[in-house]
Amino acid sequence: MADIQNLESLQTPGAVFFIFGATGDLARRKLFPAIYSLYKEGKLAEDFAVIGVARRPRSQEEFRDDVHRSIEEFCRYKVEDATNWTQFVEHFFYKSLDINNIDGYHELRDLTETVEARFEIPGNRLFYLALSPELFGSVSYNLQKGGMLSSAGWHRLVIEKPFGYDLLSAQKLNEELNQVFKEEEIYRIDHYLGKEMVQNIEVIRFANAFFEPLWNNKHIANIQITLSETVGVEERGGYYDHSGALRDMGQNHMLQMLTMIAMEAPSRLFPEDIRDEKVKVLRSLRPYASAAEVKENVVRGQYAPGESRGKSLLGYRQEDKVAPDSNTETYFAAKVLVDNFRWAGVPFYIRTGKRLPVKTTEVVVEFKQMPTNVYLGQKHTLEPNLLVIRVNPMEGIYIKINAKKPGSESKIEPLAMEFCQSCQVGINSPEAYERLIHDAANGDSTYFTRWDEVATAWAFVDRIAAAWGQNPSDISSYPAGSWGPEEADELLAKDGFHWWPVNGQEEDDVVWIKS
Ligand code: BG6
């Protein structure tokens, strides 16, 4: 197996990429642009093809026009000239398919073989299902039955979240997939793991002598993970009302980020070694023992009408395709404990919500206080040191330290030193999907979730959902555009902490030094 550091420079092996759901939003916004970026950067050579699959009839030209529009609108590279474009788009084909009709798969196989012969592709096939999850099982089955998995090369299945609705449904889905694909052929996407700064967490932690020795319960007071969004449910009310923030963001993105922060250093940088360490964190999460414990440690909220920047906003229950008496949570915050030697006693506070004041993904590591007796007699208390990892939309890190105010006799002031990755001229951060498609084609599953991770995360989340289910209407509301229910502040206040400001909402008394 290749070392992941060496995969960086690898050109993707010749393969056909099948995009099921090729006329959908994900393909248009993320997948076509990602494939174009990989091509522009030389990570895809000429021995590749994309076959778009969807029910809708579409001619080859119409499909290629769709791809062009998507790249113009969403790709970080623009189409430079006609020659370059023609050379690229010649690799794109479209097949209209009723996914339940086996004959259609036979036609798809014939088309694939022609395309493989034309571009000298050695039978490697990557099936990307950008489809509704209830179709994953039947499409996999039909791929096999329709002869799509009998070529000489490798076959891989890439699927989007949600992977099930709870542990039981996830197990059922997994069993269906396993009838066709082996675990090592299944690439479960969690697009947060494709984000540049989420991957950087590993490097920051394990490549810096500054941090690793301090990364434990002796030195860290608490860790805060915030995934806040300004959007509401938009046009996804139908899906979201059955899901809610816990399932939509908690079971996957939030717990995955927590594993990256809390995992032990892997013995080697091989995918399975890294995923072994991640799943150990999930297994160490302390389960809430009762509904009362859930209530004490987990806050749920739903946005009510409110306003943001002078614009009035609907409440969740007024949104399209949402039940007018819905009790689905659009916000949750939790205090999570990781019961192992490194983290015993350190609370991880996680929160996510829609219609919050800013869009941001950030991790704040708050270090324990220094013995302040050295500074007794000062008129102020020392601020704790912070390490803040900004994932999105700003990318970078900053550390907050205490230093002597220049010119004063001994006044100490907090100083934030920032490395702003996204401010660097010329840094054009790859999109999560570029990295993930490239990795899947190279057989690197590091940043995809393994079945045991998914199952363990569901087992943790199911307990919360079950406790909420006992008393569905026990949900707090918060005005759209605010920071969520007050109980989320109390959750930290009970332990003597508070949420640190996020997304550059700088505190008044801090001196900033920016890169
Ligand atoms: C998706 C959720 O997985 O992640 C959405 O289903 C959410 O509800 C989105 O808006 C957030 O992703 P990002 O990359 O914009 O932070």
UniProtKB/TrEMBL annotation:
Q: What is the annotated signal peptide range for this record?
A: none
Source organism's superkingdom?
Bacteria
Enzyme Commission number(s) of this protein: 1.1.1.49
Q: Give the residues the record marks as binding substrate.
A: 191, 195, 229, 248, 354, 359
Residues annotated as catalytic? 253
Keyword terms: Carbohydrate metabolism, Glucose metabolism, NADP, Oxidoreductase
Q: Which protein family is named in the record?
A: Belongs to the glucose-6-phosphate dehydrogenase family.
NCBIfam families per the UniProt record, alphabetical: zwf
Protein name, as recorded: Glucose-6-phosphate 1-dehydrogenase
Task: Give the organism, scientific name.
Answer: Paenibacillus segetis
